[in-house]
Amino acid sequence: MVARIVQNIRPNQIVDWYRANARDLPWRKPGTSPWGVLISEVMSHQTQVERVAPIWLEWIERWPTPHDFAQARIDDILRAWANLGYPRRALRLRECAQVIVDKHGGVVPDDVDALLALPGIGDYTARAVACFAYGKNVPVVDTNVRRVVARVERGQALGVPGKKEIQEVAHLLPEDNGPEFSVGLMELGALVCTAKAPKCDACPIAQDCAWLAAGRPAPEEGQRRPSQRFEGTDRQVRGKIMKVLREADSPVEQAIIDAVWPDDAQRSRALFSLLEDGLAEQDERGYFHLPR
Prior knowledge:
This protein is mostly helical. 53% of the residues lie in helices and 1% in strands. A hairpin with a 5-residue loop joins strand 1 and strand 2.
């Protein structure tokens, strides 16, 4: 059992700040369906919400229900995913929609355990959907929440992922208005209590922050995760190949693929991984195209 942490984070302050400073994101508008919330959470994973918003709007208009999406062609989905990155998420989301249709009558479940049983849905996403779509007062812990709690409550620069943090955040939840507090905590971490340049002067709970009171100590050993470079990685090469396939009206020959990257070995490795992941296919002529 995790001991209750000293509560420096005061829910009313977080909610008041959120109401005055929240970003105008389309999935936060009243009337957004649970399916719309689920799509927004999957799309926003490791992706800036500013990039997600226009694509989310297109998706929710084109595929407003899990049933609509479950019937969509894979190539249409991958083209609509555009440049969000990690396109396997799109395939898993289609699998998720199919299970929602087959096992839940086309209705996104509201129970955390049922959500966790869906393809591609992890701890964070399951709790986010239960909380933000259905108003369940469950702890929602992403990187931003983890960082705010670590700093304000424990005086640490960064949080370390772990199951116990879900229990710690659960202790902070108010009995009423928990979902608004949860989204406010996330927003505070995204806009103010950032990893590299926190805006402590603009923080509504700075006077109670243990990290600020301790002189903003640097991350302890094991806390800082190495930043993931993108330039020159297989992921970048995969993205370049996927762009060619998305924009092509017909299957493309090997020479067109070869032109996207000069390193033969890396390009071949990236292409093979796309084929293995089900994100690309090769026809009998040796040409490449998106799966259908």
